[in-house]
C-alpha cells in the first residue's frame, strides 16, 4: 500500500538547516493498522504530511497503492489525495456553518459525485459511526467525540485505500478515545489500511504495528499483539 525509500526532508529557516527526515525507508502493507510515534521534533508529523501528499520531500521515492507519487504537481496530488486517502485531524477541521451531513458530503463535491449519491453515501457513513440522528446539527451543537466521528465519516465516504489520522484522540477524554479506536479497528477489520500518528503509548496499543521516530530516523519498528476493545 505504502512504500517509501530514502525519503529526506530538510527545512531551511533563518540561515540554518534542520533535517526533519533522514533517508527513511518504510513499507506498509495493505490492511495494516500502524501507529507512528516519537517525541516532539522526531519527524513523525513531517512523515505523516509526506505520506498524505500534504508536503514535498527533497530526495527519495514514494509509491502509494502502486503509483509513483514522488513528483506530482499540486493538482495531481490533490486528485490522488481525494481518491486514495482519508484524513482525520486532531482539531476535526469541520466547516462550522455547514450541517454534519454537508460536512461529510464535502469530499464528494470535489470528486464530482452527483447530489443524490452524495446524500446516500454521506448518510451511510454517518450511520457507520453512529451519528445518523445528528445529520441536521452543526459542529458547535455536538460533543468533541461526535465531531471526531463526523470527521471519520467524512474521511471514509470516498472509500479511500488508506486512512491517515494525525493525533485523532489528542483532544478527547479516555472514554471517547476508546470509542474512536474501536471505530478505527472496525474500519481496519473491513480491509482499510490505517496509519495513525500518536504520542500516547496507551493509544498505540490498539494498533498492530508501532514505528518509532527519533531525530528524523526510524528508531524502532515492531509488530505487536493488538489490544482490542
List the helices and strands and how they pair.
Blueprint: E1 2-13, E2 16-28, E3 33-37, H1 44-51, E4 59-64, E5 67-68, H2 74-84, E6 85-89, H3 100-110, H4 115-128, H5 144-156, E7 162-166, H6 174-189, E8 193-197, H7 201-204, E9 209-214, E10 217-223
Parallel strand pairs: 3-8, 3-9, 6-7, 7-8
Antiparallel strand pairs: 1-2, 1-4, 4-5, 9-10
Helix pairs in contact: 3-4, 3-5, 4-5
Short overview:
34% of the residues lie in helices and 29% in strands. The protein is built from seven helices and ten strands. The strands form two sheets. A six-stranded mixed sheet has the order 6-7-8-3-9-10, with helices on both faces. It has a four-stranded antiparallel sheet with strand order 2-1-4-5, with helices on one face.
Key features?
single chain, globular, 29% strand, 4-stranded antiparallel sheet, 229 residues, Rossmann fold, alpha/beta
- Low-confidence runs of at least 5 consecutive residues: none
Strand content: 25-35%
Instruction: Write out the CATH superfamily name.
Output: P-loop containing nucleotide triphosphate hydrolases
Number of domains: 1
Rounded average pLDDT: 92
Order of strands across the main sheet: 6-7-8-3-9-10
Give the helix level as a range of percent: 25-40%
- Output the helix-strand order: EEEHEEHEHHHEHEHEE
Number of helices: 7
**Rg result:** 18 Å
CATH architecture: 3-Layer(aba) Sandwich
CATH class: Alpha Beta
Distance linking N and C termini:
26 Å
Q: Largest sheet at a glance?
A: 6 strands, mixed
Number of extended strands: 10
Amino acid at each position: 500500500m505504502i512504500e517509501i525509500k530514502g525519503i529526506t526532508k530538510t527545512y531551511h529557516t533563518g540561515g540554518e538547516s534542520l533535517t526533519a527526515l533522514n533517508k527513511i525507508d518504510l513499507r506498509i502493507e495493505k490492511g495494516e493498522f500502524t501507529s507512528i510515534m516519537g517525541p516532539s521534533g522526531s519527524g513523525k508529523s513531517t512523515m505523516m504530511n509526506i505520506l498524505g501528499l500534504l508536503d514535498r520531500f527533497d530526495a527519495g521515492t514514494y509509491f502509494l497503492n502502486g503509483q509513483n507519487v514522488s513528483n506530482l504537481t499540486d493538482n495531481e496530488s490533490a486528485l490522488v489525495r481525494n481518491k486514495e486517502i482519508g484524513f482525520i485531524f486532531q482539531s476535526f477541521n469541520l466547516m462550522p456553518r455547514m450541517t454534519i451531513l454537508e460536512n461529510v458530503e464535502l469530499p464528494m463535491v470535489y470528486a464530482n459525485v452527483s447530489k443524490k449519491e452524495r446524500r446516500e453515501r454521506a448518510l451511510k457513513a454517518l450511520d457507520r459511526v453512529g451519528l445518523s440522528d445528528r445529520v441536521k446539527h452543526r459542529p458547535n451543537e455536538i460533543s468533541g467525540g461526535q465531531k471526531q466521528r463526523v470527521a471519520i465519516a467524512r474521511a471514509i465516504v470516498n472509500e479511500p485505500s488508506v486512512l491517515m489520522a494525525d493525533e485523532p484522540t489528542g483532544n478527547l477524554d479516555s472514554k471517547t478515545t476508546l470509542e474512536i479506536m474501536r471505530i478505527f479497528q472496525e474500519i481496519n477489520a473491513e480491509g482499510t489500511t490505517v496509519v495513525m500518528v500518536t504520542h500516547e503509548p496507551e493509544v498505540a496499543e490498539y494498533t498492530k504495528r508501532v514505528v518509532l521516530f527519533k531525530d528524523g530516523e526510524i528508531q524502532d519498528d515492531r509488530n505487536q499483539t493488538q489490544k482490542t476493545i
